[in-house]
Amino acid sequence: HGFKGVATVFCYAAFSYGGVETVILTAAEQENPLKSIPRATKIVVVRILLIYLFSLIIICFLVPSDNLMLMGSGGGTGDDNSSSTSSSPFVIALELHGIKVIPHIINAVILISVVSVANSALYATPRLLLSLAQEGIIPHWFEYIDNMGRPLYCMILVCLFGSLGFIATSNAREEVFLWLLSISGLGQIFIWMSICLCHIRFRYVLKAQGFDIKKTNFYKSQTGVWGSVIALIISLFILVCQFWVALFPIRENSHANVKTFFQNYLAFPVVMVAYLGYKLYHKDWRLLIKSGEVTLPGTIYQD
After folding, report:
1. Mean pLDDT computed over every residue of the chain
2. Which portions of the chain are predicted below pLDDT 70?
3. What is the chain written as a DSSP string?
4. What is the model's pLDDT at position 1?
5. Within a 13 Å sphere around the CA of 253, how many CA atoms are in the beta-carbon half?
């Protein structure tokens, strides 16, 4: 489908590769975050290049693009036509070449990785909610921490949302998955847009308040401010492309469809409701805080 086909998978890619930013959430609990965080970030880059991108290149040589088992559309090989054998291209590649035992091992690895993702989400999300409560953005009772140091109410809320995973047993699981994919996948784009904006703004505040970036003791982005500017432009480009394919999707023969549009672009109204809801509740109509009013940490310089 040409460029439109490429634009269609932007959201899937964001969903699959999102979550890298959770590495930074561990900074407050690290012994030496100035060393451990940059090291962990570099490892993530290597993992993406070697484990994900390299393995996907191999898969492209092993699995035909028109294979019926891709995207869970059925057509399994042999006697096994279960959803597990029609969901992972790694399993499909092995089955197509007559390997019987390895696919089950791959499925076990995938299951373990899913549990790992759920574990990291259960670690990161309550801490984000706790931070929002401490900033006064959400109700203060989310600040409660039990005697084991856990943000208990935040964890309960996250677990309640996690129960949506039982939708996998429903007959409408594929449709529901598309709705959740839209929120999480496109939501990753908004997350990284905010990260880039914060970085650009942070550098601007440092300059406005007379701080010399070369004398600070925090980690400096190797691409500087321009790296965040370029990433922000790319994110905006993806949002425009996603709007286009949501309004005129390939599978609907380019006919506009309201349900399909919101199914693919639901994250945008969710973000806008959250943002405007905060503005209305707190009656804070500032677009941003003035550079001179931003409070910077006192440990920003080396001793």
Report:
1. 81
2. 71-87, 217, 251-255, 297-303
3. -HHHHHHHTHHHHHHHHTTGGGGGGGGGG-S-HHHHHHHHHHHHHHHIIIIIIIHHHHHHHHS-TT-TTGGG----STT---GGGGT-HHHHHHHHTT--SHHHHHHHHHHHHHHHHHHHHHHHHHHHHHHHHHTTSS-GGGG---TTS--HHHHHHHHHHHGGGGGGGSTTHHHHHHHHHHHHHHHHHHHHHHHHHHHHHHHHHHHHTT--GGGB-S---TTHHHHHHHHHHHHHHHHHHHHHHHHS-GGGTT---HHHHHHHHTHHHHHHHHHHHHHHHHT---SS--GGGPPPPTT-B--
4. 77
5. 0
Q: How far apart are CA 41 and CA 31, in angstroms?
A: 16
Residue appearing with tokens 């012994």: 31
Would you state the structure tokens that stand for residue 281, as one six-digit string?
């509740």
Is the CB of residue 291 less than 8 Å from the CB of residue 209?
A: yes
Note the residue count of the chain. Answer: 303
Using a cut of 0.90, tell me whether the model's pTM lies above it. no
Which residue type is seen at 132? L
